[in-house]
Structure prediction request, 390 residues.
Amino acid sequence: MAEIYQSAEDLLVQLKEVANGTLADASGAEPALYWNEDIAASEDANIFRKDWVCPGLAAEIPNQGDYLTYTVAGQPIFCVRDKSGEVKTYSNVCRHRMMQLLEGSGTTSRVVCPYHAWTYDLNGRLIGAGHMEKTNGFNKKEICLPEIRTEIWNGWIYVTLNPDAPSVQEALAPLNEVVSRYGMENYVPVVSENHVWKTNWKLLTENFMEGYHLPVAHKATVGAWFALNETMFPEETFDSFTYQTFAKTGNATYGQAHPDNTTLEAEWRNTSVLPTVFPCHMYVLAPDHLWYLTLRPKGVGEVDIRFGVAIAPEVDAMLSYADERTAWIDELVKFFEHVNTEDRQVVEGIYAGSQSNFAAPGKLSWLEREIHDFQRYLARRLVPNAKENA
Ligand code: FES
Ligand SMILES: [Fe+2]
Prediction:
């Protein structure tokens, strides 16, 4: 039976112990790691304020003035395609009286505050502010929205509040060797949705990272598409990400290269890569489509999820008639929404289970290798002297 009370210190000692051991000896995390408020505060300070998070695909804002809003460690931000065609990110808080400027996503030629109409250009510079002529020391040329560090990597937007974080390009260089062959920066986004699930963000991350549950929790959808025993993991472990690869069976509805795809060769034509970029960006990259999740904790017991789907350009090109395109995409999206519903049931179920006094961590399977990678990552970030295991 679990201890009635475990302090954050106790939980971190246990986390470090599992992280220091081998996968064959590893157990899941202590239940309270998922709902202890001090752990959540430490994650905010040491993970979400330090690492890169992903608001979505750059192709979701393809044209000048296209924007999307997001938060990083609770800070409202927006990403926008500026006049030079670059994606930039700014604080989404007005420099007058702190109103949030933009909501959702859309297109605009400038950013107008909905409170008193202070107006900013696409590079965050204040270009209009009425009735300020009697105010001492006001010079609109000196006012600009704070810019947030942004990098585009293989089509993904990454942002961080940390000026010292190593660049994404450097941190993800070994992953580039695996995923760049797919050309995912050319995939065409077809949907992006926001949801809130009642679970801790780490439980959803861990769920994404293991295929062990596929034949069971997903038996109505993707369960039969994979030969679990052939799951491949990289030999090394990496500081900023982990991944696995799966070969799809011949019966899979999605996941094989389109005949017009001439770049993927041999087994790569039916192989999917499933990267998790720590802490909270995960995607299934298949030869014909990708779908992604990007997570933001909402307290300990809820998570904000952005879910998106994009299709390979040759698949998009095949759908030449508008009606046919809409129908095909609707079916694809409905299918992955069904997969998400199956995951929602289990990750909300585990979170509820983690509240039980009888909850206790069980041993991990070799198929849960990435959960151990994630434990090692959490230990590196939350228990600084665990660094020797990096
Ligand atoms: S708060 Fe934005 S214009 Fe006043
Ligand atoms: Fe799943």
